[in-house]
Prior knowledge:
alpha+beta; 22% helix; 8 strands; single chain; Peptide Deformylase; binds zinc ion; 3 helices
Amino acid sequence: MAIMRQIAQMGQPVLRAVAARIPDPREPVVQSLIEDMLVTVADANGVGIAAPQVFESLALFIVASNLNPRYPQAPVMEPIAMINPELLWTSDEMIKDWEGCLSIPGLRGLVPRHTRIGVRYLTRTGEVREEEFVDFPARIFQHEFDHVRGVLFIDRIESTLEMVSEKEYLRRMYSHA
Ligand code: ZN
C-alpha cells in the first residue's frame, strides 16, 4: 500500500547529491517507491517529483503533467515513472518560462530550458524507451533530470528579478484568465 512521503526541502543535502542508478527497476523496493512517489506528487499538486525529493538518492522521477491549481495550463498526461534517465540530444532553441518546485515552496522563477529534447529511460517494467518531448513536458523532464544530478531550478535563474513569490505568480496568472 502506497504511503505519502515527506518532501525534502531546500537545504537538505540529499537534494544536492548525484543520485545512483537503479540496477533493476523491477525490484519490489523500487516498485513501492514509485507507488509512494505517485501518491505524494498527486497530493502535492505537482507535475513531477524526483526520488531525491523523497530522501531516496536514486535516478528515478515521475513526470505527471496534469491540470491542477499550481499549473493550470499543464497538458494532461498519464503519470510515468522514468528510471536511469538520459538526455540524448537537446534543441538549440531555448525558452524561458516559470517553474516552481515542491522542495522550494512559495517561489517561482523564470528558467531557460531547451524547447525540444530526446530522452532515454527505463520504464517501471524495465523496458528501454526512447522519446522526444516538446514544450511543457520537455521542461518537466529537464527540471526532474536536474534533481537526479543535484541541481535545483534556482541554480538556472539568470536574475533575481526573475523570481517571484508563488502567491504573486498565481495572482498574475488568474487575473489574466
Ligand atoms: Zn523540483
